[in-house]
Design a protein that fits this description.
The chain has 61 residues and is mostly helical. It contains three helices and no strands. It is flat.
Length: 61
């Protein structure tokens, strides 16, 4: 059995009672207005590798 991948709108809507899509749309619009961008999650190993590189650059500086 494969797990279903939710869209951003579905993931936000499901956190509200009765899957409130109107509230999800308002939240997405508000985040966009504030300058936030919802991006697809990268693989954990790549994210950890990038974080390690940033830490080593900060220490070396």
């Amino acid at each position: 059995m494969t797990s279903r991948k939710f869209t951003v709108r579905e993931a936000i809507a499901r956190s509200y009672p009765t899957w409130d899509y109107d509230m999800a749309d308002r939240l997405i619009a508000w985040l966009d207005h504030c300058g936030y961008e919802i991006v697809e999650k990268k693989q954990r190993s790549l994210a950890l590798h990038a974080a390690d590189e940033e830490t080593s650059e900060t220490v070396d500086a």
